[in-house]
């Protein structure tokens, strides 16, 4: 039975995505955020389960993030230089699916004994997972949004599906990891078992995403339509591409907002257990926080579409970032009351969801601006903004937690938290997120590309017609 033909969006672009396409595509983000969510738990695991010093853990994380800063753009350049006639993006998802599952397990099998060996093992496994495997999935996966459909309406919907699918594993890990591993004995072995289940999910999700992905903006019932996004452009040398990207102020703003948003997300993933254990006095409360945290999550994903339709992408981001600032300012007044901070924490969580949904859309806008400014989209290199923000932001968030604890001379065996430890926990739970929301708000004020896009696209059409 033939499928019912799809119509066009309100801008006249052909729609090509069906419900199963959105779902399968979103499974790539589910896998990526499951990886980053487990990486976000490593600070607590390394310090409280493997017995490593907090300062050393933070330093290892920072080393991996410095290297990450280069691997994203390098990977994007490799993909942009794929020879014409070959798939550029989709094959990487298949290639990295099994290595991702294996490395997920290896992150938590830190050897006992010699501290030097443990540090080397931490560094190597984290580099392989975040700098190599995650990068080789995230950059091509992010690029698929641009080549899968020419419809900005469908791209926005893909962003919402991806954000929702990405948020689920992050929240599930926060909600389940402590109660489940404690129920299994609270040992390193318990964490390895939990990681094994997550690794299997990562593998299955990546395989499903690969199976349903396409590299042409066409649907099964329109095989004859060739998309604009698949015109093969001349590859730009790496250093030239980097220079051009950093002269595209909108790409830079999208990079900063994505990075800050993911640092906030990484802090939330890594810090909640410490807050519950030392401020509230019971680390099992993290499960309650996670369960309550689903309320702003559901509201966020339900409201981001209407907000975007009513306000537009940029104004939606401005409103959300302002809410995040207000919530953290109010938390400073009384940082120890459980329900007061839980409610305000929900507001802060809600404030981060629109950026999760719309980062890919802002990056796609910046890619269109590349075509206008330089005559070349540089799709994969441009998508490094998303990959860089995702893994570096989450990892940096975890590193900040470790550094704050190291400055406070954190001791996992202490009976009660010292004054310095409490201030360190307040810093990475309240003060630093407040600063991050302020930076994102300023960037959103400067991101004025959305209103210019119709004129830019008309100019691109005019140039194309003159060729």
Overview of this structure, please?
This protein has 467 residues and is mostly helical. The chain has one domain: Growth Hormone, Chain: A (Up-down Bundle), CATH 1.20.1250.20. It is built from 15 helices and no strands. The longest helix is centred in the C-terminal third of the chain and has 37 residues. The two termini are 41 Å apart. About 3% of the residues have low confidence.
Secondary structure: elements and pairs:
Layout: H1 19-40, H2 42-49, H3 54-80, H4 90-106, H5 115-148, H6 152-183, H7 188-212, H8 238-246, H9 249-280, H10 285-311, H11 313-333, H12 338-374, H13 379-407, H14 419-446, H15 453-466
Helix pairs in contact: 1-5, 1-6, 1-7, 1-13, 3-5, 3-13, 4-5, 4-7, 5-13, 6-7, 6-10, 6-12, 9-12, 9-13, 9-14, 10-11, 10-12, 11-12, 11-14, 12-13, 12-15, 13-14
Key structural traits:
single chain, Growth Hormone, Chain: A, 15 helices, mainly alpha, 467 residues
Would you kindly provide a brief summary of this structure?
The chain has 467 residues and is mostly helical. Helices cover 78% and strands 0% of the residues.
Q: In DSSP terms, counting alpha (H) and pi (I) runs of 4 or more, how many helices?
A: 15
The Rg value, from CA coordinates, equals 22 Å
* Global structural class: mainly alpha
Low-confidence stretches: 219-230
CATH class: Mainly Alpha
The geometry reads as: globular
Distance from N terminus to C terminus (CA atoms, Å) equals: 41 Å
Largest sheet: none
Count of distinct structural domains: 1
